[in-house]
Amino acid sequence: MTGQSKHQRGVSMFIVLVMVMLSSLLVIWASRTALFSEMITGNDSDYQRAFEAAQAMVRDAEFDIMGTLADGKTECRSGAAYVGCRELAGGVFFPADEDDFQTLSDSLRAASPSCMRGICLGNDGTFLNSKTGLEAMQKVAATYGTYTGAKATAASNPLLMTGAGQAPRAWYWVEVLPYDVGAATTAGPAQRFAPDAGNPYVFRITAVAKGLKPNSMAVVQTVFVRKRIDS
């Protein structure tokens, strides 16, 4: 009986070791799964924050185009020295007629890239595909509230905040595209949503916001038209 008892104790030890090993593997698997889920949640949260910042940049650009402050109603600036939110000097402002557009074109064609203070001539958007291209465009972009006076706080979206010691993490560019108002000869969306004949321009807004995590970036692009709505 003594030999059989020792044999049984040996088998029990083997079973206990196997159970301990399986338990350890389960604990490791559970911890790695929890860590992976936390990483996914963190990345998604960071992207959503960047996406919301990019959307806010688009709205800020729309106010800039309309020439209003962040409330969307109050005129940015008044006086002969300003056009909307922009200074007349330098020729970089949103055009209201053909002469304005010619002035803008002359100013932007002399620049490389053909963009200044967030206002650009038409481009193909390839700058978003390269780090160097994006860095070059960031230098000629507009940041949140630069022209509309909008203010961001940490409670709203920290990616929009700019100031002393804070590098911008969100930018926008507006391409000014001439529109042939006479091209839409039949009633329909192309005619209904076309810009006014006296201001025949379409504005393509591109907003970019970088998250707090590396390689986290959101891009929002939309088209904006200044159109008088008759009541």
Characterise this structure.
The protein is α+β, with helices and mostly antiparallel strands and 231 residues long. It has four helices and seven strands. Helices cover 39% and strands 16% of the residues. A five-stranded mixed sheet has the order 3-4-5-6-7.
Give the SSE order as H and E letters: HEEHEEHEHEE
What's the main sheet like?
A: 5 strands, mixed
Distance between the termini: 104 Å
Low-confidence stretches: none
Number of distinct helices = 4
Structural class: alpha+beta
Query: Major sheet: order of its strands?
Result: 3-4-5-6-7
Shape: elongated
Alpha carbon gyration radius: 29 Å
Sheet-strand content, in percent, reads 15-25%
Give helix % range: 25-40%
Number of strands: 7
Oligomer: single chain
Averaged pLDDT, please? Answer: 84
